[in-house]
Write a structure and sequence with these properties.
With about 190 residues, the protein is an alpha/beta fold. It is about 35% helix and about 30% strand. It is built from 5 helices and 8 strands. It is rod-shaped, with a radius of gyration of 31 Å.
């Protein structure tokens, strides 16, 4: 028994949801679809509700643009302004906000239960460096094979690290087993 055409799936391809804050298009001048709008003048005073054509004439008389600032209001609110200058100031504000934000990263240090003394000192030096850079440090003790029977060794190493770094770090997450690994997270002291 054959089918009489190409097999078309009954499900629809999922569409990616666009980021509304970045891709939002402001309606400017002729792109405004409403018949009546509430108009705010260039000086910030309300001019009242009027037909869109009259509002466009007012904006053109001042050599400015009519920009829809609240499209969901009833009637939509439009403001007379220089749209190019408005977009420029908006991009500058977003750049300033980006400059001021700080990103905290989690840097990972891996240790084995049989790690030697010198290697442990090197790992602690790395943790100190991460904390000095205001990053968090994730300390992981890896257990392989039969080492899993001696988790107390890993706990002892982590306790020693906490004791040596008590002036520089705060334990954000206490040591806990995650599968064959024991994990602890340290954060810099405020």
């Amino acid at each position: 028994m054959g089918t009489s055409g190409p097999c078309v799936p009954s499900w629809k391809e999922p569409t990616r949801k666009e980021d509304t804050t970045l891709n939002k298009q402001e309606n400017v001048n002729e792109r405004i679809r409403a018949t009546e709008v509430r108009v705010i003048g260039a000086d910030g005073n309300q001019l009242g509700i009027m037909p869109t054509k009259k509002a466009l004439e007012l904006a053109a008389a001042d050599s400015l643009d009519l920009v829809e600032v609240a499209p969901n209001a009833d009637p939509p609110v439009c403001k007379i302004m220089d749209f190019g200058k408005f977009k420029y100031q908006k991009s500058k504000r977003s750049q300033e906000a980006k400059k001021k934000q700080t990103v905290i990263q989690v840097k990972e240090v891996k240790i084995r239960p049989k790690t030697g003394e010198h290697d442990l000192q090197v790992k602690m030096r790395n943790i100190r460096r991460f904390l000095a850079q205001n990053d968090k440090a994730k300390v992981t003790v890896l257990f392989r094979g039969r080492e899993i029977a001696h988790t107390s060794r890993g706990a002892t190493i982590l306790e020693r690290i906490v004791e040596e770094l008590k002036d520089e770090a705060v334990v954000e997450r206490q040591p806990a087993m995650e599968g064959r690994n024991m994990v602890m997270i340290l954060a810099p002291k405020a």
